[in-house]
Design a protein that fits this description.
With 316 residues, the chain is α/β, with parallel strands linked by helices. 33% of the residues lie in helices and 16% in strands. The chain is globular and about 50 Å long.
């Protein structure tokens, strides 16, 4: 049967569509699978090395543990305290003509070797809080000590959300006082050169007054101070430390609840504003690329308006 013009056009069109489909399928790359179990992951991210770093390499962010609990108190909220007579939000006595003081604590140190080194190379007087069971805690605390950095123990404590893993050997409300002391001793021994501690997670644990009494007393036997990270408005850490005569202070601002450099810079502004209002303020950040970039590129003139000090200088 002879072919008509219409049939030739139809055949040509079908062939074009078939070839296009083959090319589309062959050029597609498979979508990466995202696991739903296990610790929180962050994608690999490469940023320029900080200006103060001696290295000209790049920073690669590797998978990391959960850095914070969900539903934290607002990052720049006023810290609620149970007794006005023990208020820690009042101005510290400072000499005339001195700048307001801030402490910036970098929590969760010890899980990222390269990133940890980059944070330690920042030309800022930061305080570093190390997780006791992290694989690079020993190495990085040695570097921190050699360069005169202040070191804390980041004590993993039980959160309210059971799906969030605070880490191995975390302090649990169900632990007996003796078990808590054993865990504490092991943790404090695992972080050489530490002079104080703060809590990792702990929204459930820090609300338990009896459990916190054991923790604070153990810190007292080491002459450690305690920074209450305030992962819950009901924390008893600050008040317990005050009752036991352990030097203490609260966290005022979380810098990187939102991991975006510009937002972190805005949180630094909140920290500085708070310090100018009360004479001092404490902020907490975490070892991630966004925080590293923000601290590396933040306006140095603004930093010169305050004095960045070790956390031990702000406890009472």
């Amino acid at each position: 049967m002879p072919c008509t013009a219409a049939s030739k056009c139809t055949g040509t069109t079908a062939l074009v569509f078939l070839l296009a489909a083959i090319v589309f399928v062959s050029c597609r790359s498979p979508e990466p699978s995202v696991g739903t179990n296990g610790p929180e992951k962050v994608a690999a991210l490469t940023l320029p090395a900080p200006q103060s770093s001696a290295s000209s390499g790049h920073i690669t962010i590797t998978p990391q543990i959960v850095l914070k609990e969900p539903d934290l108190p607002a990052a720049n909220s006023t810290v609620p305290l149970p007794q006005p007579s023990l208020q820690q939000d009042t101005p510290l006595p400072i000499e005339a003509n001195t700048r307001p003081r801030i402490a910036i604590i970098i929590d969760d140190m010890g899980y990222h070797q390269q990133l940890g080194r980059q944070f330690l190379q920042l030309d800022l007087n930061l305080t570093y809080s190390f997780l006791p069971d992290a694989p690079y805690t020993g190495e990085l605390t040695a570097t921190a000590f050699e360069t005169g950095r202040e070191i804390l123990v980041h004590l993993p404590m039980e959160p309210k959300d059971a799906s969030k893993n605070p880490g191995a050997n975390a302090l649990l409300v169900q632990d007996t006082p003796e078990r808590l002391r054993q865990k504490m001793t092991k943790m404090l021994n695992a972080v050489p050169h530490a002079v104080g501690a703060n809590n990792h997670m702990g929204s459930r644990f820090t609300e338990d007054a009896e459990a916190m009494q054991v923790v604070i007393y153990t810190l007292k036997t080491r002459s450690f101070f305690f920074i209450d990270s305030f992962t819950t408005a009901g924390s008893r850490g600050l008040i317990t430390a005050q009752h036991q005569g352990v030097p203490t202070a609260p966290r005022h601002v979380f810098l990187d609840t939102i991991r975006e450099p510009q937002q972190i810079c805005r949180q630094i502004e909140q920290l500085i504003a708070g310090a100018k209002k009360r004479g001092w303020a404490i902020g907490i950040g975490h070892p991630n690329g966004a925080t590293l970039e923000a601290l590396s590129r933040y306006n140095l003139e603004r930093f010169r308006e305050v004095e960045i000090v070790g956390a031990h200088q702000l406890v009472q």
